[in-house]
Amino acid sequence: MLLQIKNLTKKFGGLTAVDNIDIAINNGEIASIIGPNGAGKTTVFNCITGIYQPSSGEIFLKGNKLNGLRPHKITRMGIARTFQNIRLFAEMTAIENVMIGRHIKTETGILGAVIKNSRAVKEERDISSKAMDLLEFAGLRKKASIWARNLSYGDQRRLEIARALASEPRLLLLDEPAAGMNPKETETLMELIKSIRQKGITIILIEHDMKVVMAISERVVVLDYGVKIAEGLPEEIKKNTMVIEAYLGKELYRAS
Questions:
Q1: What confidence tens digit (pLDDT) does each residue in 86-98 have?
Q2: CB 34 within 8 A of CB 213
Q3: Contacts of 12 (CB under 8 A, 6+ apart)
Q4: What is the pLDDT of residues 201-227, one digit of tens each?
Q5: Regarding the domain delimited by 85-168, which CATH topology (the fold level of the hierarchy) does it fall under?
Q6: Class in CATH terms, 1-78+170-187+201-256
Q7: Distance from first CA to last CA of the chain, Å, rounded?
């Protein structure tokens, strides 16, 4: 088991955003967390990555407790993420964005970077090479020198994923990666996600597009008002009456 969440609760004043949920994610799995807006999905991601500290409960990565750790330490342990709203450096090129995602792996330090010693030069060259490899993997090699703000929406989404992969995560969290994409972009995204899993990286995605969820997920967790109401195989979730009433409704069958 790669990730284990036990009795996770997160409260904001009098509001309970996540209420005593358990989730276990296996190595090499593609899992989805779904539910209506305000169900607590992104709050779960924020607790996993250290942006929020849980009010109670525990989170473990490969048996190592994440509670109380700062986000950069959690990244070093092997968790990377994208966000619901694109957070690229708009005035930097695609390759520069990916290189920034690699900084967590650097060893030279500020002094070495300033004086440009041989070790720093080699490390910068290696970072650039790795970034280019990731751009190629994401289908963006030919756009390496284009400013992020000038990329199409779908390319920006894939660039975010490439930047997240630069930290060499064991677990990749994708927050609504298909949001705003057209059908062709969505198809390209699904193929990318499958390719990431083939590299041995475990993936959890929050997603409203049920066609994406049902096509690539091996397991689906459903939240409603911060409570886990169902968990199972996609086919099981499609037939779960509680899930249909709470969230999917007729949209479920349009996605079938």
A1: 999 999 999 999 9
A2: yes
A3: none
A4: 999 999 999 999 999 999 999 999 999
A5: Rossmann fold (3.40.50)
A6: alpha beta
A7: 30
